[in-house]
Here is the input.
Amino acid sequence: GVELLRSKSMERDSYDSGDWYNRVDYTLADNNFDKGLPRKDKDGDNYPLIEQVLGKHVKPSGADMATMVGFYQELAELRQSSRLLRLGSGAEVIKRVDFRNTGPDQVPGLIVMTVDDGINAGADLDPAIDGLVVMINATNAPQSISDFRDGNDQPIDLTSLQLSPAHHGGESIARDAVVNGGTLTLGAWSAAVFVKPQSGAQGSGLPVGKKTDLSTVPPFGDTAVYLKGFLDEWGNTNQMTFTSNFMYEFTTEVSSDKLGTTNVKIADASWGPLNYGSCNAGDKLVVGTPLTLCKGGDTGNIGLDLAKAGSYKFVFTAMNKDKPTLSVSFTEPVQSCKVLDTVAGNPLGYNLFVKGELSGWAAQPQYQLSYKGMDGDLAIYQAAFNYTGSTEFKVANEDWSKEYLLNGGGALKAETGYPFAFSQAGSANNSITLPQGLWSVLVKVDPAGAKAGTAVIQECSAK
Here is the structure.
């Protein structure tokens, strides 16, 4: 009923309130607004606010409702007017669609989307046009745009654009929309589709602009980001690692003798321009709940209660540098293990071995990790072998085309969980010293490569 301006007379939850609140009048004589206060059991606490709203708004007329119905009909006709507004697959969207009013200089409230049907877009989906522009102006003033660029940062000719003939005359959602010398102008609170006519074969179209995948770009460039203050370490010790999607991460183990309250901030090495703390006095970081941070040297420290021994993972997300967030998750300490039963299958599609000084850096059968099943999206692999001594090692397949490291390389401790991820050929090895025992190397890895894996080396008693 939105297209009819239909109202439920302020009833926020009307599924069992009968026709009094739920009636729809398709004759457009009544939109059901202002039928009295809604049920007290549902909205009694909202009565003062509802009375204020009722005093400031008038009931729409039949003509108002008819205009809105016309707008929706116009939208449906526009969508039907071109296959470019019904692309049907994500691949076509990625190849053809671009957004033009973006970046730090964008006009707030103005959405400008282009859809390409030119020679570089592939199949000619709409023989009548070479592309189209969708503009939505959600501001109270006219807005204009004219500078579109292609993938080579060259200007796109917009002079042939014209308003779509699918728009209605008179009362139209494209109120005051005009094209003048390649400049597109749209009136306040309105929307429009402009088309680039095609004459004969496909033309140059409206190719997408040069794109940068910001999810792979560190928000602070080469500036190192630190978790400062954790366990009273206020220096440049706990450096966070940029992963993707504007996120920096830091994982550490906390032993039982370190439990209690600590304070943290996020900053660069010199406490310079990158300096984030609490927005409000007394702000505390709670496991599992992201906290919004504020920038500036005068913001306070962020409290954190360390109630349990185990692994703490901090994630600093700076998609919005003015209001980034910090979150922390907790993983229980790894407990003593069993040698798991091997099951059929191999989701990775290749075999894994512990390769190092203990195996002569070869793929020895006794050091092969066997498939043990799934833990959600992660495949579990385990090797168990008797060993004593010190060794450097990596986890790899037979021909070293797939190499993995625990915690990015370096010295490891038994009974400690570590991140498990691909390494570059020639990167530093892991190392560990183990007393005599039956040792398990257990890893969990995402066969699709979408999630980070985990690994642990444990003294393990056989079943």
About this structure: The helical segments are 19-22, 40-43, 47-56, 62-81, 90-96. The mean pLDDT is 92. The longest helix spans residues 62-81.
